């Protein structure tokens, strides 16, 4: 087991370096540097441009800049944002809880709805329910987040007035950020009204962000269940006279869950990617919206640091998922 | 960042405690389009960042609400010496500073604060010069370092600025957002606590609203500053709810989550006009979009060619198609809302036949080949340069001018145009200080026609230049108006540009907003705005 963990962890290092290098390079390939992006029509005298580039260290060779950056990263220093002049890590950590809160709820939504839907669809294969679930999940999977979000806002927020349009908390409330998770902070502050408001604000973005993972989970559960339901041991269990629910719940589901957990793990990447759009639509103060602004302003350190931290999160979650297999399926644990 | 929020949080608790008993506290919610870099306009260049500082700070002089006229700010009055080189400002007594967190001001704003604030931008050895990056773009762009000779304190409430040369727009420059007065006492307080970065993160000013808290990328809160020298604002709280998507801003307005919304989607304007639940305001922006002919290159060194092209392009069709109701055709380089705009000037008619004849006279009976540069980005004065270029291309083809559309990345584009690499190129301008000099001299003067300068026609006309330079050296507005009106006549005759349009800016408001005024410079201010209960 330990060797398994070590092998997996050692694979993370080249990935980490690769991500750092790619982000570093890609943002620099985008034309326009941080200074030119902000000067607008007026332009800037060449001497002053040189001076500013020098102050920001942009006049050094790319290699020099990259090595500097890697050196900083290894000692835990992600640099200062070129725009706000705050440490990138501080900015990220201030905003990241909002993204996690949203992504976690979206995942919860996807699992809580997707798993049972997939199971029922598999058990009642060929029924109207099965076709319905598969049809809806295909639609959900294909829906552009931007359009879906605006549609829900128009219907539920503007039309019916059931949910707020955007934001994280009603402006009436101000809750001291302690953990950064609004649901927890409002409870800590004992502001139950604020808690309800935070929950209300979460509904639409959660549904929008959770739609794609929901579709994936439902389809994956269905096909994994179908495969397992055809196995001999299921027939044996049925032959033993076990109740149908027990066969499905215990014997089939446990085995079908392995690929589903993999997929859920992989969805973390999708979720964080989808969060960028979702956060922009719902004015959600998370890292996605922050990254978009960093690109527009060519804020290299913020963008590099942000992508690096998100990539690290995805890698960590994938690692966890791999380890979770061992728990779910002893065969994997022992074969390595 | 956390530290800041914590510190500011105490202020919020106090603000809420004050606001709590009065059920009917008036809170104005402005759905802003983006997050600010920080709360100090000295180091910023975007309207988004200026907007968040304007409630907090005062300048020595300011622009009147909704206008371009310079009115007293922290300076109650001022005198300009006869030679136009010395400006003496008399500061208002009793202008109180905000208290934020554990900073409690012990004195009112005075000459020390004025000196402190200008020296911060001017002197590289000032202890706060490097704070927040230390790039004072506007201060440098307005040539303040070369213009200023000295700034001196005469007494606690009198400050004397001496210039190196006469510069009529100087007063208007001081009213621009980049020149706020910050508190020297607060700076000292932060220095003692070793927190100088907080200067621009938790702002302390003398303005009508006091900063309460900023939740990054989400909400900015202010409360009304009761002892504001200009009188208490009619509202109690001002909130910026950061909402980057234009469609969502509109939805929030309809759902009652915002009172004021900037930058609506052009595509939504028709619906908004018909929407009786909101108010749509519009105003011609202080800008101009144009096509510049490079007058140093053949065939555009010939005025007949430039005039011919002015007659060959159907301006009205372009304005209708590209601006979709959010633009008015331009005939002068300055917008109609600016003083000294010469309304008597007649634009060239759209007349391809006459254009063809003129081209033949100039020696191009079969037309010629040219490039046509179009910027790759949407700008306030030009929503779609590519589309505009295609329409111009089609019109020009009809008189035999074959134009090839050229595009570069924005920074590169501007640089190459300023270097004069083009034959025809699109550009535009948004006014900084409401002074005609800011358009006529900056965009068409001989000084700016150098390689790398912002006169991209590279047009240097002695007669025109003499008029604008003379106007810059005169402080009498009536005399300046005459000079500028005359210079616009020369501009029209010489036709270095094909002026396209001035865009129209829109704001959407909920019905209960009272007395909001649109600002000329693309900024948004909320002092004086009220809410009907």
TrEMBL record, chain A:
Membrane topology (UniProt): Multi-pass membrane protein
Keywords, sorted A to Z: Cell membrane, Membrane, Transmembrane, Transmembrane helix, Transport
Residue intervals of the ABC transmembrane type-1 domain: 96-321
Main localisation: membrane
Annotated TM spans: 12-30, 102-123, 144-165, 198-218, 256-282, 302-328
InterPro entries linked to this entry: BPD_transp_1_N (IPR045621), MetI-like (IPR000515), MetI-like_sf (IPR035906)
Compartments in which it is found: Cell membrane
UniProt superkingdom: Bacteria
PROSITE patterns: ABC_TM1
Family: Belongs to the binding-protein-dependent transport system permease family.
Annotated protein name in UniProt: Dipeptide transport system permease protein
Species this chain originates from: Azospirillum rugosum
TrEMBL record, chain B:
PROSITE patterns referenced in this protein's UniProt entry, alphabetically: SBP_BACTERIAL_5
Location relative to the cell: Periplasm
Superkingdom of origin: Bacteria
InterPro entries per the UniProt record, alphabetical: Peptide/Ni-bd (IPR030678), SBP_5 (IPR039424), SBP_5_CS (IPR023765), SBP_5_dom (IPR000914)
Residue ranges constituting the Solute-binding protein family domain according to the UniProt record: 69-447
Pfam families, alphabetized: SBP_bac_5 (PF00496)
Gene3D superfamilies (UniProt xref): Dipeptide-binding Protein, Domain 1, Dipeptide-binding Protein, Domain 3, Periplasmic binding protein-like II
Stored SUPFAM superfamilies: Periplasmic binding protein-like II
Signal peptide: 1-24
Assigned protein family: Belongs to the bacterial solute-binding protein 5 family.
Name assigned to this protein: Dipeptide transport system substrate-binding protein
């Amino acid at each position: 087991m330990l060797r398994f963990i070590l092998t997996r962890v050692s694979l993370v290092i080249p990935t980490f370096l690769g991500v750092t290098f790619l982000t570093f390079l890609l943002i620099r390939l985008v034309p326009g540097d941080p200074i030119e992006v902000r000067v607008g029509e007026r332009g800037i005298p060449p001497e002053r441009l040189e001076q500013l580039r020098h102050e920001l260290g942009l006049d050094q060779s790319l290699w020099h800049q990259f090595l500097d950056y890697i050196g900083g990263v290894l000692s835990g220093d992600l640099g200062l944002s070129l725009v706000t002049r705050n440490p990138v890590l501080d900015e990220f950590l201030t905003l990241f809880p909002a993204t996690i809160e949203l992504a976690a709820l979206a995942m919860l939504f996807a699992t809580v709805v997707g798993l049972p839907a997939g199971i029922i669809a598999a058990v009642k294969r060929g029924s109207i329910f099965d076709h319905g679930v598969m049809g809806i999940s295909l639609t959900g999977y294909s829906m552009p987040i931007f359009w879906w979000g605006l549609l829900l806002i128009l219907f539920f927020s503007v039309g019916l007035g059931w949910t707020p349009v955007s934001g994280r908390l009603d402006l009436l409330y101000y809750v001291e950020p302690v953990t950064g998770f609004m649901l927890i902070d409002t409870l800590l502050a004992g502001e139950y009204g604020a808690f309800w408001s935070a929950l209300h604000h979460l509904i639409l973005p959660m549904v929008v962000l959770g739609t794609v993972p929901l579709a994936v989970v439902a389809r994956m559960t269905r096909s994994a269940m179908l495969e397992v339901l055809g196995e001999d041991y299921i027939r044996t269990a049925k032959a033993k006279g076990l109740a149908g629910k027990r066969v499905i719940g215990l014997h089939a589901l446990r085995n079908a869950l392995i690929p589903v957990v993999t997929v859920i793990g992989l969805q973390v990447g999708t979720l964080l990617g989808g969060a960028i759009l979702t956060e922009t639509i719902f004015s959600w103060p998370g890292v996605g919206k922050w990254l978009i602004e960093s690109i527009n302003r060519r804020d290299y350190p913020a963008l590099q640091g942000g992508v690096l931290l998100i990539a690290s999160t995805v890698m960590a979650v994938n690692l966890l998922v791999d380890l979770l297999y061992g728990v779910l399926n002893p065969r994997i644990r022992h074969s390595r | 960042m956390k530290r800041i929020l914590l510190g500011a949080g105490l202020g919020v608790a106090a603000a809420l405690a004050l606001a709590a008993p009065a059920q009917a506290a008036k809170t104005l919610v402005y759905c802003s389009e983006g997050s600010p870099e920080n709360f100090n306009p000295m180091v910023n260049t975007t309207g988004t960042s200026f907007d968040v500082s304007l409630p907090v700070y005062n300048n020595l002089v300011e622009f009147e609400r909704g206008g371009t006229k310079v009115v007293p700010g922290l300076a109650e009055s001022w005198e300009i010496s006869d030679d136009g080189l010395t400006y003496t400002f008399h500061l208002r007594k009793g202008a109180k500073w905000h208290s934020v967190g554990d900073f409690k001001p012990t004195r009112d704003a005075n000459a020390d604060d004025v000196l402190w604030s200008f020296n911060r931008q001017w002197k590289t050895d000032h202890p706060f010069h490097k704070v927040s990056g230390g790039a004072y773009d506007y201060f440098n762009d307005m040539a303040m370092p070369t213009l200023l000779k000295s700034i001196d304190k005469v007494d606690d409430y009198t400050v004397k600025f001496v210039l190196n040369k006469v510069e009529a727009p100087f007063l208007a420059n001081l009213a621009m957002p980049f020149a706020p007065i910050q508190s020297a006492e607060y700076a000292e307080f932060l220095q003692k606590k070793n927190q100088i970065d907080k200067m621009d993160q938790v702002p302390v000013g003398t303005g009508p609203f006091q900063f309460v808290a900023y939740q990054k990328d989400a909400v900015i809160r202010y409360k009304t500053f009761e002892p504001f020298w200009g009188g208490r604002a009619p509202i109690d709280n001002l909130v910026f709810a950061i909402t980057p998507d234009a469609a969502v801003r509109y939805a929030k307005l309809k759902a009652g989550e915002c009172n004021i919304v900037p930058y609506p989607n052009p595509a939504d304007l028709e619906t908004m006009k018909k929407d009786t639940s909101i108010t749509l305001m519009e105003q011609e922006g202080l800008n101009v979009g144009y096509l510049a002919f490079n007058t140093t290159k053949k065939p555009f060194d010939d005025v007949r060619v430039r005039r011919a092209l002015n007659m060959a392009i159907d301006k009205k069709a372009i304005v209708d198609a590209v601006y979709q109701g959010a633009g008015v055709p331009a005939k002068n380089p300055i917008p109609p809302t600016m003083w000294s705009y010469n309304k008597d000037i007649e634009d060239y008619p759209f007349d391809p036949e006459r254009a063809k004849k003129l081209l033949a006279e100039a020696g191009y009976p079969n037309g010629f080949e040219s490039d046509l540069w179009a910027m790759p980005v949407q700008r306030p004065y030009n929503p779609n340069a590519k589309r505009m270029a295609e329409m111009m291309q089609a019109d020009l083809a009809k008189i035999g001018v074959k134009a090839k559309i050229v595009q570069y990345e924005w920074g590169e584009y501007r640089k190459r145009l300023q270097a004069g690499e083009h034959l025809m190129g699109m550009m535009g301008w948004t006014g900084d200080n409401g002074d005609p000099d800011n358009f006529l001299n900056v965009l068409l003067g001989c000084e700016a026609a150098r390689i790398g300068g912002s006169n991209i026609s590279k047009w240097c006309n002695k007669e025109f230049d003499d008029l604008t330079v003379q106007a810059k050296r005169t402080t009498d507005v009536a005399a300046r108006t005459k000079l500028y009106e005359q210079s616009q006549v020369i501009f029209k005759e010489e036709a270095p540009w094909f002026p396209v349009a001035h865009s129209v800016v829109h704001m959407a408001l909920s019905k209960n907003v009272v007395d909001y005024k649109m600002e000329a410079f693309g900024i948004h201010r909320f002092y004086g705005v009220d809410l009907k209960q």
